[in-house]
Amino acid sequence: MNIAILTSGGDSSGMNPAIKKFVECCYEKNYTPYFIYDGLEGMIDGKIKKASYKDVAGIIYRGGTIIRSSRSKRWYEKKYRKIAYENLKNNKIDALIILGGDGSFRALDVFYDEFKIPFMGIPATIDNDIPLNEYTIGVDTALNVIREAVDDIRDTASSFSRAFVIETMGRECGYLALTSAVANGAEMCLIPEVKYNLDNLKKRYLDEIKNGRSYFLAIVAEGLNISYKIKEWFEKEIGFESRVTILGHIQRGGSPTVIERLRTAEFVKTALDNIEKNPDKIVTYYDDKFVLRDLKDIVNSKYELDENMLALAKKLMGI
Ligand SMILES: Nc1ncnc2c1ncn2[C@@H]1O[C@H](COP(=O)(O)OP(=O)(O)O)[C@@H](O)[C@H]1O
Ligand SMILES: O=P(O)(O)OC[C@H]1O[C@](O)(COP(=O)(O)O)[C@@H](O)[C@@H]1O
């Protein structure tokens, strides 16, 4: 069986260990591993190559993806998806392993409906916004990058008695902001999923200032697009000099954490263990187990944040 792997959408740390495990597992199972370079764009352009051990030697600790990724405008047009399918056929590819986020799974859904090419999907995005799934490859490393950055900002915030507004990635999903705010002990956490109350926060902050609070850390999700407004709010309403730090793409980099490396190996092993009997599934991580789910169930469901984590952060949202 010839199996090809591709990485699609935003790259995330842990994709490289997954690619390495894929090649190793293919050899163990007598499958022939192939790489599709440059994600969906590369599938359209026929960038498909047989992979070997040599290609994956020494990559386990590297962030990003050695086979590169892309966002593809052409994929939305059927004529390009047909070219992609013909490229797979010409290279005698029997099945696909795709590492990506919700967008990549929607792309796969359209492709499977049209061409029925067997596949396994593995959630990989720093946003952790895949429904029916609790962990995506890359989110743990991203959270650790944020943790370190926010700890560093705390040093300067406390030295200068300032309010820092720190913007995290995640598109419309507030997972990174929510989890980081709790893990870093921030005073504020604003995310798109929850209606916050600045009046309540102001009342609390003014009381705390009377009791000696001398700086603030506010974590704001990029999806709200209000970081600079919150900076002005701190200056006008709270009377604190304020700065904005947009963490940006550093959140996508870094050496994969131990958790990424271990879970990645299990994701890939589960995918390859099942690819012959269940060739149209997403491997999810749920309740500490690796669970196969129908792609349709994933694309037709909505991601929801964990209630316990939300409860921990309510005070930081003024509710
Ligand atoms: N509804 C869709 N139909 C077809 N292709 C899609 C659809 N949504 C996303 N894609 C394709 O999947 C690619 C990856 O999705 P994107 O949202 O950029 O990243 P991620 O997979 O990390 O969420 C897009 O660039 C696009 O080519
Ligand atoms: O790298 P780009 O194209 O600027 O995209 C930035 C976006 O990609 C992400 O880092 C990851 O998103 P996806 O994994 O869904 O592609 C988002 O958090 C962010 O909004």
Largest sheet: 7 strands, mixed
List low-pLDDT spans.
none
Question: What value does the Rg take, in angstroms?
Answer: 22 Å
The set of bound ligands, ions and cofactors reads: adenosine-5'-diphosphate, 1,6-di-O-phosphono-beta-D-fructofuranose
CATH topology of the largest domain: Rossmann fold
Distance from N terminus to C terminus (CA atoms, Å) equals 55 Å
Which strand order do you get reading across the main beta sheet?
A: 3-2-1-4-5-10-11
Number of domains as seen in the coordinates: 2
Mean pLDDT: 98
How many separate helices? Answer: 12
Query: What is the CATH architecture descriptor of the largest domain?
Result: 3-Layer(aba) Sandwich
Number-wise, the strands total: 11
Regarding CATH, which class of the largest domain? Alpha Beta
**Percent range for helical residues?**
40-55%
Order of helices and strands: EHEHEHHEHEHEHEHEHEHEEHH
* Content of β-strand: 15-25%
Write the layout of secondary structure elements.
Blueprint lengths: L1 E6 L7 H14 L3 E5 L2 H6 L3 E3 L2 H4 L21 H13 L4 E6 L1 H14 L3 E5 L15 H22 L2 E6 L6 H10 L3 E3 L7 H13 L5 E6 L5 H12 L3 E5 L11 H17 L5 E7 L2 E6 H5 L7 H7 L6
Helix pairs in contact: 1-10, 6-7, 7-12
The site of adenosine-5'-diphosphate has 17 residues, from helix 5.
Summarize the structure.
The chain has 319 residues and is of the alpha/beta class. The chain has helices spanning 15-28, 39-44, 53-56, 78-90, 102-115, 139-160, 175-184, 198-210, 227-238, 258-274, 295-299, 307-313; strands at 2-7, 32-36, 48-50, 95-100, 119-123, 163-168, 188-190, 216-221, 242-246, 280-286, 289-294. Residues 8-10, 40, 71-72, 75-76, 100-104, 106-107, 110, 125 line the site of adenosine-5'-diphosphate.
